[in-house]
Amino acid sequence: MVEVNSETDFVGKNEQFQSFVRDVTQVALANGITDIDALAAAAYPAGGTVAEKLTSNIATIGENQSLRRAAILSVGSGVVTGYVHNAAAPGMGKIGVLVALESTAGADVLEPLGKQLAMHVAAANPLALNGDDLDADLVARERAIAEEKAAQSGKPADIVTKMVDGAIAKFRKENALLSQLFVMDGKTPVAEVVAAVRQGCRRDDHAQGLHPLPARRRHREGRKRFRGGSRGGRRRLKRNAGLRRTRAAVRLAMARTLTRVRAIRI
Fold this sequence. Notes:
It contains ten helices and five strands; from the N terminus they run βααααβββααααααβ.
C-alpha cells in the first residue's frame, strides 16, 4: 500500500495521477520497498526513477504531489484483506486499510472477518494493535497534558497520580485496535470479537456440543414449544437446528486456526 498526496481532490481523480499511483504501488510490492526514499529512487516501469516521474507529473498536472508512506503486509498462511474508503477508483481512495489474518482456514472464512476488521480500522483509526505498542513519545505527550489538567484540580498528590494513570489507561484503550469497541455493534471490544471465535473450539467438536441443550432435551423442549410436537413444528425445529449447526461450523473453522491479527491504515 502506498500513499501519494495531492493538494486537491480534483487531482486524485486524474487518470495520469491514478496511473502513477498504480505503477508505484506495483514497484513497492515487487521490490518489497517500504522506505519512501528507497521508493523514490527505484526504477519506474516507463523509464527513469519514481522521483523523476513524480516531478514530471507535477509539471504536467500543475499541482504539487508527494510520496508520503508505504507499507507491506504478508502472511505465511492466511489472507491479507484490504478496504478503501471513499474510493476514487478501484483500489484507490482517501483511506486505505490492510488487515492480515494468519491462519490455516480458507479465504472464504477469513476474508469476511478481515473485511469487517478493515472497515473498523478505517472508521476508528487505531494507532497501534495493543495499548503497550503505542508510540512512547505520543504517550508521554498525553501524560504531560493529563498531569497539567490534574494539577489544576487542587486535589492531593496521590489522587492526582491516580487521575493521570486513569487518563493514560483510557487513552491506551481508546487508541489500540484490540481494546476498541467493534464498530459493527458498538459495544464489544475487538479482542473479544476475536476471542469469541477461539472460544467456540473449546466446546465439543461435534455440532450438537455447541447447543445449550442436549439433543434429546432440546427435542422435548421443541415439542413443548410447538404444542404437542406437530409435524410442522418438528420440521421447523430441525431446520433451525441445522441453521445453528451451519453457523457453529463457521465459528469453529475460524476459532481453530486464527492466530494473529495485524492492521495498517493509511
